[in-house]
Amino acid sequence: MTALAPPSRRNPKSHGSSLVPQLTRPALVVLLSAAFMQLLDSTIVNVAVPDIRADLHTGSSTVELIMAGYQAAFAAVLLVGGRLGDVHGRRRLFLLGMAGFVLASVACGLAGTGSQLVAARFAQGAFSGLMFPQVLAILKVSTPPAQRPKVFGIYGATVGLSTVLGPVLGGVLIDPLDAGWRSVFWVNVPIGLAALAAGRVLLPNTPPQRGRPVDLFSAALLASALLAVLFPLTFGRENGWPISGFVVMAAALVLFGLFVRRQARLDSIARHQQAKPAPVAPLALFAAPGFAVGAAANVVFFAGIGPFFFIFLLTLQLGMGESALTAGLATVPFAALGAVSSKRSALFARRLGSRVLVLGCGLQVAGHLMLMATLQVADQPTPWALAPALAVAGFGMGLFVAPVTEIVLRHVPHELAGAASGLLATCQQVGGAVGLALLGTLYFHLLGARPGPAGFQHTLTDALWWEVAVFVLAAAMCLRLPSPRTAPVQPTTV
């Protein structure tokens, strides 16, 4: 990678993206380490699910909530987290989020009941929502335009590796090291403390944009809407799908409509009244070419990526009797090919433009169809028999995840970088949380009528049709993204 410039000696209190200190290599390492740790926490718990169920005596709904609750809280806070970073300084919010994340990880490790673990996971997700948008915003505003594709390619590789290496690390901690399921949370503590100490010294002090309060009510509306979807979907099956659950989900639509209406109202008021809160999702973002369709494509894509490893690893461990380590190692082909394609994604993006995302989705479809064929042909396939299909899907993941952030944020004005990065990451986490709730519910429903190892295998095969459908839809959305030659919008003051 081209060497990053040394920190600027300009006044850090000055306003304007041109005066932001440029990112150093050590600071980049701090940011990527934080992103890796946060996103690792989304998947490392997957391999620990059987041990958590046995130790805490939890049902399938609680397990789903332990997984999806992290992503839902993450998504609910991301938007306001990005705006808080714009207003109060991104380094300050990064450090606050990191400190809270470490404390919440300690609470997860000490949890004595399923309810306590769910609460601690929600806290983890909330503090992640404060920290994560600062990573994307600092990368965007503190990296010269010519270096952004490479930097975001490295960031994308980090995201991809964290997503799929979580089960491997979890398997190592649980099986050969015999550290127990709590160790998947304790591992965050030393990494987080190191990033916290290094971040205070190394991260650029991006100038705050003071003057407007942050609209916490909008964040509360969005959080309420997400929870009103998540809880009925998660607990509906075990409770016989009561009418009250559908009423709550209908209320989620109302809450989301109120959220959108409030953003439009604040957008018009904030242009003239500095004392009023700025919208957490400024409408000016949607004037940037491709941002709206790119955000929607992220929701759909991550609705497939998010729940896949949850059902895949459950099938390997509970259905096929594999150990936590073997199940984790089964994801290595996905991780390895994802790392290769992430590293090469800039080359693919230069040649294909935004169509590289379509190729990534297409390879996901091909990989999952191969996986379904393998499951149908073999009576009891070994994890290694599934490796070719996972390798194809992993290569496709890297071609999507690595370049998508730079492609979607390419035309977003610098002063909206925090809000844009927060909204994009929110879309990814919303997709993962809702996808996990939907596919998890479908998976356990089908599994209830299919006992035994063969039942797990047939259930996984049927559930993979969800994966194929969402990646086909994501590919169709990506076809509507503009080419790199599209002229960027002019900066808009919000």
| Beginning-to-end CA distance, first to last residue | 34 Å
Number of E-type strands: 0
Strand % is under 5%
- Cα gyration radius (Å): 22 Å
What best-fitting shape do the alpha-carbon axes yield? Answer: globular
**Element order: H for helix, E for strand:** HHHHHHHHHHHHHHHHH
Mean pLDDT over the residues: 82
Structural class: mainly alpha
Determine the number of helices (DSSP H or I, runs of at least 4 residues): 17
Low-pLDDT sequence parts: 1-19, 485-494
Helix content: over 70%
Biggest β-sheet strands, sense, barrel: none
Description of the structure:
This protein is mainly alpha-helical and 494 residues long. Helices cover 73% and strands 0% of the residues. The protein has helices at 25-43, 49-56, 60-88, 90-110, 114-141, 148-174, 183-186, 188-202, 216-236, 243-270, 291-319, 324-329, 332-352, 355-377, 387-409, 417-448, 452-478. The longest helix is centred in the last third of the chain and has 32 residues, at 417-448. The chain starts with 24 loop residues before the first helix and ends in a 16-residue tail after the last helix.
